[in-house]
Structures are given as C-alpha cells and as structure tokens.
Design goal:
Layout: H1 3-10, H2 20-24, H3 31-39, H4 43-53, H5 57-63, H6 85-98, E1 114-118, H7 122-133, E2 137-142, H8 150-153, H9 162-175, E3 178-181, H10 191-197, E4 200-203, E5 209-210, E6 223-225, H11 226-234, E7 244-248, H12 252-263, E8 268-273, H13 284-292, E9 296-299, E10 301-309, E11 312-324, E12 327-338, E13 341-344, E14 348-349, H14 352-357, E15 381-383, H15 394-413
Helix pairs in contact: 1-3, 3-4, 3-6, 4-6, 5-6, 7-15, 11-12, 12-13
C-alpha cells in the first residue's frame, strides 16, 4: 500500500470524542490520536503515540483479537466496516522499523532501587518498560535460555516474526534493563532471596502446566502438550515421524499447534473440538488459515481415549457431542478416528505447588491472588499475566504488567 491508500484507510476513523475503541483496548491505546497523525501524513508522531503507551505495539497489531476489542467497539462498524485499527497499527510500526525509529532511551536514573522481574513474557517486558521510562532499573530473570516468554516459544513465527521480539529486547537493553537467562523460580531463585536483594518484585511466569487427560492405561508414544509441541517447532527442533496428528482443542493455541504440525511434516492434521465453530474461542482468521493449509476440522466431537499397538497410537476413540445451554455434552454415536500423534491444546494452568511453596496466596483454581493494583499477598510483590488471569491474551498481560509497574513507580518516586 502507498501512503495515499493508507491515509484513505485512516479516513474511516470518525475521531469519536468518547473513544470507545480505546476503552475496549486493554492497553487503552490512544487510537483516534495515532490515526489522526496518519491522516496528517505524520507517521513519526503516530509511532511515538503508539510506542509511548506500549512498547509491544507491533506485537499487538499482529496477535491481538481486534475484532473483539478495539475494532469490535468501532462506531463505524455499527452500519459499515469498522476502521482497520490493527492494520494501521501494524503499518505504522513497520514504517518505524524500516526507518530505524526507536524511542529515546536516554533516561537518567532517578533512584538506586532496582526491581526484580521474574519472566520475560509480555507482562514482564511491559513492566520493565514502564519502569525504565521513569529511570527505574530492573533485572529480568527468565527460566529459558532465550528471552521473550510465550512470544518466543509459544507463538509461532508464521504469526509473529521473532525479529520483532528481538528488537523489543534490544530497546529495553538500551534503557538499561538487565536480563538473566536460565533462572527459574523455585529452582534457581526464590521470592525470599529476591526480596532480600530487591525492594520490589514482579512475577510474570505465566501458566506453566498443560491441561491433559489420560488416553490409555499404558504409556503411549506421540502424546504431547501444546507447550512442548510449540517449543519444539519454535526452537527449531522439529518432532519427526508425526504421522497423522490430532489436535484436541479449539483455541488459538490449538490452531498454532495444528499449523506447526503441518510445518513439521505431519502426514495429516486434524483439529477435534467438543463444541461447534460458533462457540470456538479461537479467532476466525486463525481457523481460516488452518483450513487453507489443509488442516481438517471436526466439531462437536470429544476424544475419549486412544487405541494403540505396543505403545504406539493407531487411532483415537471419539464420541459425538451437542451444545446444550452453551455447554458441550455427550451425544449418541461413538467412532474411531485414525491418528498417530495427539496434541493437547485445552489450556494451561499455573503451577500451584510452586506458587504455594513461595508463600503466595492463591485463588481456588491456582492463580496468584492480587488486589486492584496487582499486588500479591506479599507486600511489594506484584504479579500479572497468565499466572493471574486464566487464558489471558497478550494485550491483557501487557496491561497487567503496566498496572503493576505504575504502582511500583508511585511507591518509589513518591
């Protein structure tokens, strides 16, 4: 697209004073403001508006469910096509990268206090950015040997170019943020030790445990959780001889797993989901991409068990389901579906045992309990992201990291 075409797209924005689009955005992006700058052909100022609010603006433009948030609240969308906010945000960020435009990282330190951040995913990076802008240094501890959390190992490159994540990390390093890899909470570091060294701590370790259920009484080859499956793809360690793959689940992670399986050479890939397409949590665009790549989709089906021979899966045993009051319940009709590998993509949950051992108060389902400022039950220890909000999306994780940082800033600089 040339600039005139982009400005034409921007002209769709009505510049609503009440800004329902911004209110629907978890990061409260100044949407009419940045689009107005595009209309004025001032891409630099449009970028500055976006990046001041959210360092991961480019990431959000690619992976956020705009149709349910900003674009879903666009007034123009009531009678016409909503303003393509996500596309415009992506265009501005791409322009900034092409022109090597970055935020000014020359910020003087305002305090000798440092903040420890556990986890380099969206929540942790957002927290570090807000602190850095105010001259407060942080040290980010990451359990993997690469940085970025789920942005790196959870979202595949066909949805998010890892160069974008690398650029974000480099900007934070320019601000003075320090990163340490290979440090896992409960294994290499503890809250007790960190609180002895840092006055404030932010926990953004995500939901680490995959939800799975037993398919057979014997140990089976070829059963994976989505976390390890996507790590294998994203870390360029493809799983070989997958054969026919069945992915259980209907969220974006299931779609990512299915498309990763295609790229790892699976003979055939099928998504089996116990609800129908209308009740599927994945974005329509993600399922459409799967179907375009040859992935099969079987709705209203639940996998009960697996049939195997010497520990190798031959098929999965399924039962038909139906939707009753919005819930999937078993219906009549059972059948076997040919499969050699199964990927569970039915959700992740926090590591309850780990968090309890660290002395944190938890919700009944295992998430860290936080107050309205994202502070945990331990004074000056904050948390955000999937470890707090079950099935959080990237933009919500970013918002929680930002909220925690703003409260830490207020305490340090008061």
């Amino acid at each position: 697209m040339n600039k005139e075409e982009i400005k034409q797209m921007a002209s769709w924005c009505l510049g609503c004073k009440t800004k329902p689009c911004s209110k629907a955005c978890p990061m409260h992006t100044n949407i009419p403001e940045f689009i107005e700058k595009i209309k004025e052909d001032n891409f630099k100022e449009a970028y500055n508006i976006l990046i001041e609010n959210n360092l991961l603006s480019h990431v959000c433009s690619l992976v956020c469910p705009q149709e349910n948030q900003c674009e879903g609240s666009c007034v123009r969308g009531i009678k016409q096509t909503p303003t393509k906010i996500g596309t415009l945000e992506r265009i501005v960020n791409e322009w900034a990268e092409e022109n090597n435009l970055k935020p000014d990282t020359n910020v003087l330190s305002k305090t000798d206090k440092k903040v420890a951040i556990i986890g380099s995913g969206p929540a942790g990076l957002s927290c570090a950015y807000e602190l850095a802008k105010k001259g407060i240094r942080s040290v980010v501890y990451e359990k993997e040997n690469v940085l970025g959390g789920l942005l790196t190992y959870g979202i595949p490159d066909f949805r998010l170019d890892k160069k974008i994540v690398d650029r974000i990390i480099e900007i934070l390093k320019d601000y003075g943020v320090e990163f340490k890899t290979g440090f896992a909470l409960g294994r290499d570091i503890s809250l007790k030790d960190l609180k002895a060294e840092y006055e404030y701590v932010f926990i953004g370790i995500g939901a680490e445990l995959s939800s799975m259920y037993k398919l057979s009484n014997e140990k089976l080859e070829g059963v994976y959780d989505s976390d390890e499956f996507l790590k294998a793809y994203n870390f360029n360690k493809p799983i070989k001889n997958l054969g026919k793959v069945v992915v259980i689940g209907g969220g974006n992670v299931a779609m990512d797993s299915a498309r990763a399986a295609v790229r790892m050479g699976a003979k055939e890939v099928s998504i089996i989901y116990r609800r129908d397409r209308v009740h599927m949590p994945a974005r329509e665009i993600e399922l459409d991409d799967c179907l375009k790549e040859g992935v099969k989709f079987k709705e209203l089906v639940r996998v009960i068990s697996a049939n195997s021979d010497n520990g190798k899966i031959k098929s999965v045993h399924c039962i038909n389901t139906k939707i009753v009051d919005g819930k999937a319940v078993d219906s009549e009709g059972e059948f076997d579906y040919e499969a050699n590998s199964v990927v569970f993509a039915i959700g992740l949950k926090p590591n309850k045992e780990l968090l309890m051992n660290e002395g944190l108060e938890l919700e009944d389902w295992g998430a860290i309990k936080v107050d309205e400022n994202n502070q945990t039950s331990i004074e000056n220890v904050y948390s955000g992201g999937d470890v707090v909000d079950n099935k959080s999306v990237v933009c919500k994780a970013l918002a929680s990291g930002k909220k925690a940082a703003l409260n830490i800033i207020e305490k340090i600089l008061q």
